[in-house]
Structures are given as C-alpha cells and as structure tokens.
Design a protein that fits this description.
Distance between the termini: 27 Å
Radius of gyration: 19 Å
Order of helices and strands: EEEHEHHEEEHHHEHHEEHE
Shape: globular
Number of strands: 11
Bound molecules: cytidine-5'-monophosphate
Structural class: alpha+beta
Strand content: 25-35%
Largest sheet: 7 strands, mixed
Number of helices: 9
Oligomer: single chain
Helix content: 25-40%
C-alpha cells in the first residue's frame, strides 16, 4: 500500500466551559465536541526520500513546518525512525481558522493514515497521546465517534456513547474574519478578571440528557460557549450572524470554539438546505453550509 485517501471531518463545540488559566498558559476546559459532515480530503502518498511535502491549493493553508499535518508526519517519522517520507495532499472544504477544527482534523487524519501506510501498528490510545502533542483539538478526531466530552486543555477525550444515534441538523455560517485562538483566551483572562464572565449553571450530563430528549427548547437552554461572549465583544460581525439566524427562525445559535463560525440548531434537513440557499444569496461574504452530525 503506497497511497491512502481519508475523509477529514470538521467539529463544532456544543458546550465549552473555561475553568481556569493553567501555569503553562493553557486553560482548563470542559467541552462537548460534535463531528459534522463537512470534510476535507487527505491523500497520503508514500515517498522513497524522507521529505514531507504539503500540497494544497488554498492560500490560507501553510505549506511549511507550521502546518499541523506536516508536524504530525514529522512526529511519527522522528519517534519511530521511519526512513520514508510522504506527500500530503489536502483538498480543503473546511473554512480555515474558523473554530471548526479543520487543521486539527487534518493532523489526526495524517496520524491515523500514516499509522496504516507506514505499518506502525500504534494503538488508538497511543495515537491520541501523540495527537495531544500536536494540538488540544487533535485527539477528538482520532476517536471514531460523533460526540465526545473533553477535559484538560481539550485533549482528554471520553466518547459519548449514549448519543451514538443522535443526528442533529445545523445551519453553519462562517463570516469572513480571522480570529486568533490565543488572543480570545487572553481576552477571556482579561474580561474574567475585570468583570467576571458568565459561567454555566449546568454540566455536560444535563446537556447530554437534553440532546437525547431531542427537545429543541431544552437543547437551546444547555448549549454554551464561554468564549462566545469574548469573541462577540471583539467582532460585532459575529453578533450580526447570530441575529440573522434567529431572525430566520433558528431555535438556538452558538459560536464554535473561539469562532467566528456560528451554528444553529435546525429541525430538519429540508429546512437547513432551504435556509442555506437563502442565506448564500443574501450574504456573499459569509460561507454557509447545511450540515448534519456524522
Ligand atoms: O492546543 P492548541 O495549539 O490548538 O492551542 C492554541 C492556543 O490556544 C494555545 O497556545 C493557547 O494560547 C490557547 N489555548 C488555551 N487553552 C486551551 C486550548 C488552547 O489557552 N485549552
């Protein structure tokens, strides 16, 4: 086997509570990830030389050592003394730097794919441990699960098996903005020290029950993202996205990760697709998708 193609899915956070700033500069969080049916394609081609090459037509994707997919291949090469190299082709559909975990998902796909291509025989737990060294959001994508709870800085994963059969529909909107995750966490520190930020009065267990109930009113009540308040303060365009979604009749809206992507809970696929087409016509500078849990 010299070549392998993988789907690399995006995520949204249905819940994200920031607990505190750690000594290492990261923040302890509690989050719930949902994998969604918006994906990049990753094609790995083994090389006889030891080079790692990134091929991607998107100008927003770095082609050098800073690319998380590159770093994943290098980590495996160095740790397991692999004498081969790899060409990594990334066909990009997931908006870059949007809070949808695209780069992290690509990194996880490279770790899983090279485990096969290079016959490393690494366990899922070992891959997840290596993934955590690449980035906080990477381990989630190692597990083949639609929903998972995460703790630590986001790297400690517990798949939520109770939600296995749940399929949610979302309208996903990504305004044309670049939001830096470190900046949003820094501002969270600042705002939290000054005035105190909203903390959720419930936990992941309650959110899980709400999702299982499929009751939109309950779901709306328990969706939460502590970083949303911060990003909304800095980027009013994200408020406009939320207002527009509510105006269209969305039951609930929430920003994903540090943003700027915002998703809405929609009752059916038909409604999600129809609203998606409507929004695409009206807002040329927003990327809009109708997506489902996958
Ligand atoms: O882990 P990752 O490299 O994706 O994190 C990017 C940056 O986001 C970190 O350098 C840190 O500034 C911030 N971060 C954080 N707490 C987390 C996750 C990320 O402060 N739990």
């Amino acid at each position: 086997m010299e070549k392998i193609a993988l789907d690399s899915y995006a995520k949204v956070n249905l819940y994200l509570a920031v607990l505190n700033r750690r000594k290492d500069g990261y923040h302890s969080i509690k989050t719930v990830f949902e994998r969604i049916g918006l994906s990049d394609k990753i094609i790995l081609q083994s090389r006889q030389d030891q080079k790692i090459k990134i091929i991607c037509s998107s100008r927003q994707v770095p082609k050098d050592q800073t690319n998380l997919a590159y770093r994943s291949a290098k980590l495996l090469q160095d740790n397991f003394k692999v004498a081969r190299g790899v060409s990594i082709k990334i066909i990009k559909n997931i908006p870059v730097g949007a809070g949808l975990g695209g780069g992290s998902s690509n990194a996880a796909a490279v770790l899983s794919g090279l485990n096969q291509l290079w016959k490393l025989k690494l366990s899922q737990n070992k891959l997840a441990e290596l993934a955590g060294r690449i980035g906080s959001d990477v381990p989630f994508f190692i597990y083949n699960t639609s929903f998972a709870q995460a703790q630590g800085r986001g790297e400690k994963i517990k798949p939520l098996k109770a939600l296995e059969r749940i399929k949610l529909w979302h309208l996903l909107v990504v305004p044309e903005l670049h939001v830096s995750t470190p900046l949003i966490y820094r501002k969270w520190d600042e705002f939290n020290q000054k005035a105190g930020l909203t903390t959720p009065a419930y936990n992941v267990k309650i959110l899980t029950l709400a999702l299982k109930s499929k009751n939109p009113l309950l779901m709306r009540k328990f969706l939460f993202n502590a970083l949303e308040e911060v990003t909304l303060k800095l980027y009013p365009e994200v408020i406009r996205v939320k207002e527009k979604l509510i105006c269209l009749g969305a039951k609930a809206t929430l920003m994903s990760g540090s943003g700027p992507a915002v998703f809405a809970l929609i009752s059916s696929g038909k409604e999600a697709v129809s609203l998606c087409n409507q929004l695409k016509k009206e807002f040329r500078f927003w990327q809009v998708f109708a997506v489902r849990t996958c």
